[in-house]
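Narrative of activities, Objective 1.

The group set out to show that a structural description can be obtained from nothing but a protein's sequence at a throughput compatible with the screening campaign. Below is one input-output pair from the validation batch, recorded exactly as produced.
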Amino acid sequence: MLTRRSILQNSTLGLGSIALGTLLEGRAPPRNSLGGIKGLPHSNPRVKRVIYLFQSGGPSQHDLFDYKPDLAKRFGEEVPKSIYPDERKTTMTSGQSSFPVAPTSIRFSRHGKSGIELGETLPHLGKVADDICVIKSMYGEAINHDPAATCFQTGSVIPGRPSMGAWVSYGLGSLNKDLPAFVAMTSNGTAKSGQPLYDRLWGAGFLPGRFQGVKFRGQGDPILDLYNPPGVTRIQRRRMLDSLDQLNREQHDLYGDPNINTRIAQYELAYRMQMSVPDLIDLSKEPKHILESYGPEVTKVGKYAYNCLLARRLAERGVRFIQLYHRGWDAHGGAPNNVKRQCNDTDQPTAALIADLKQRGMLDETLIVWGGEFGRTVYCQGKLTPKNYGRDHHPNCFTYWLAGGGIKPGFTYGKTDDYSVNVVENPVHVHDLQATIMHQLGIDHERLTYKHQGRHYRLTDVHGKVVQDVLA
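Output recorded for this entry:
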């Protein structure tokens, strides 16, 4: 006997949800065997994967890459307002009575055949300088950490958009059915914990949830519930998932909710990861010289060095987009010591990752991206001394570098003014960088779109161009 409630549910509400689900799923493009969109990539890809080393907090271009030796003569002078007007200063420094020039106290030297200039805190990167392409002319609009980082990760300062890794996963699918297409990892600098990193930075936004990044934890098992509890066998776990799958499919048939299919797919991926992840995180078979190349913290779970080695192992196994976040670059005071500590955490593992991929023949099919959400001011925040100074946020010019497939190695691009305050040659916007990354994966950033709330969205919003000059 049918109750009144069940009749209403299976007719009015049920039919309405089925119709809604059909409409929602009807706009989804057909998928290929990898789970990507049929017809993608749009062009011949130069790389198979991306490793994005995001340096959260805003590394100082003055103390790392963009050397201005003439500033030493201007130590303590006021930065001209024609160069740095008051309206472009943050509230953290706008009330200062003085804005003195703070030249870097870090020595610079040239490296490799290319002669790329690097601060002395980057000796290991100097050894692979001929493999990197330094872009000194990056710029953005956001002057605060969260909107600036959100823009780099999602293409918008407004939270809620899909992350770059989610777009790549949505468009290209996965090369390994037993691992996520998109993995995110975080680490903290020894200097301090740094700015908060929200899950939405690697989220799927309005894309289906299965395309979001899977975060590997920085302590204990990288994935919760990776191992079955005592007394539960793999056969029992499979039987439980089969029963759950049947229940979920019945719900999907009833309501047509696409999120149910996402849930089914994630349960199945989690089951397969129980077999693949233990081997992934087992470093016992890594040669001693490889472990030593990444530095003393390479076996410490959650450290930057550990994450860099794990990134290489993920890349080997076909993960499309690997996102590392390292916090602690925000230096409003004590900038020289902060830079030294941060580079002590990151310089050796970063260089080792490049060298490791290269000696395995993987660098040509991998794009490595290094940089933060903005740069730092030339003027001092707080008290200025020859060996100590602070630097405020500066989005108008800063430095990124790229390495790997299809990128000009040993190349420096773009130029800033004498104060490293404004770009004067070959500006590269956030969306230009994103368009270039997508291009290297064979994706036309203008054609990979998703209709949401009546509008077709894309990673690069309404502008952005591929930086052809940095391509090999």
